[in-house]
Amino acid sequence: MFQSVALFVSLLFVCILFSHKAEKENKILFLIILAVILSLISGMRAYNVGKDTKNYVYLFKLISAGQSEYAYGLEPQFKLFCKILAKIWDNPSLLLIVCSFITNFFVIVRIWDFKENASVVLM
After folding, report:
1. Rounded to an integer, what distance in angstroms lies between the CA atom of residue 73 and that of residue 30?
2. H or E stretch including 21?
3. pLDDT per residue over 46-95, tens digit each?
4. 87-119 exposure pattern, b = at least 16 Cβ within 10 A, e = fewer
5. Cα separation of 123 and 121, whole Å?
6. Nearest-CA neighbor of 35 among 116, 123, 104?
7. DSSP string spanning 63-94?
8. Residue 100: pLDDT band with limits 50, 70, 90
């Protein structure tokens, strides 16, 4: 329990440090590093965390095994995305990391747009 709290507080401190450095030096590079850190953390989570993670892992495994026809209801672009990622590294964690990075990156860029109105560290 204590290790989890210590890890969370440490990561929070690192996030604050990078966002402060980005704001102070007016460089988005530090925010990209922040997005990578957050994406690695959220992407390497257990497969039973969240409601949809199990489904994404199952579908990724189907697609990477060449059984994409059994992945009903998915967009062809997502199936292609999964096939490409499976060729790079056949592990569902890569899908979670990449999707998490895309999400975190656009959230952080949008926060950066408001840096004139509020502190990036607080946002």
Report:
1. 38
2. helix 2-25
3. 888 888 999 999 999 999 988 888 878 889 899 999 999 999 999 999 99
4. eeeeebebbbbbbbbeebbeebeeebeebeeee
5. 6
6. 104
7. HHTT-GGGSTT--HHHHHHHHHHHHH---HHH
8. very high
